[in-house]
Amino acid sequence: MSEEIKVLLVDDHTLFRKGLAELLEQRGEIRVAGIAGNQDDALRLLEETQPDVVITDLNMPPAGGIALLRQIRANDWRGPVLVLTVSDAEDDLADAMRAGAQGYLLKDMEPDDVVDAVKRAVRGETVVAPSMTLKLVNLVHGGGPTAGKGEALKQLTAREREILDYLAQGMSNKAIARALDISHDTVKLHVRHILAKLNLTSRVEAAVFVVEHNSTLGRRT
Description:
Layout (H helix, E strand, L loop, with lengths): L4 E6 L3 H12 L4 E7 L2 H11 L3 E4 L8 H10 L6 E5 L4 H9 L4 E4 L4 H12 L4 E2 L4 H8 L17 H11 L4 H8 L3 H15 L4 H10 L1 H4 L4
Parallel strand pairs: 1-2, 1-3, 3-4, 4-5, 5-6
């Protein structure tokens, strides 16, 4: 894949999709390869433009984003599809992930966080809005501690354990920075160190890790 990320946007609200397209293209790393307002146009443009990632609304007539997701996967397109919606319902999150979404974002997210999510999705990560993290953990958590990772906790500093706990609560890096009165860049550095030390690849995995080891971490209630 080239350095430039090609995105296909699908949303039935003209003003929103045009605004999102402008937002994404302000970053030199992203190019909007196509914009669609319905499922038929989306499937046609998917074939024509061969994007790196699809961003689709959830509540989109006539059949909705879930139907589009299922059709994309039925057509054997394996690139990342991100849902971008106003719905923070766990049922909608579950339906989207089961239909093949690689991410679930909310329309009230900070623009920089949406851009970051697109780049992470193209790298293969599962991405969700910070406020949806615990809901995703509820869906994917299915057992006791992962073998071998408990010992890795001893590598974390006190500050890293604190930030890990905040990650599990679904807080964004900016929110963590405000809570701890440190810079956003410092939080990002700590998060990278945490993931590396625990051999994890995403914030979602970190949240699952905390659920599995909450007695060891001594999480706040």
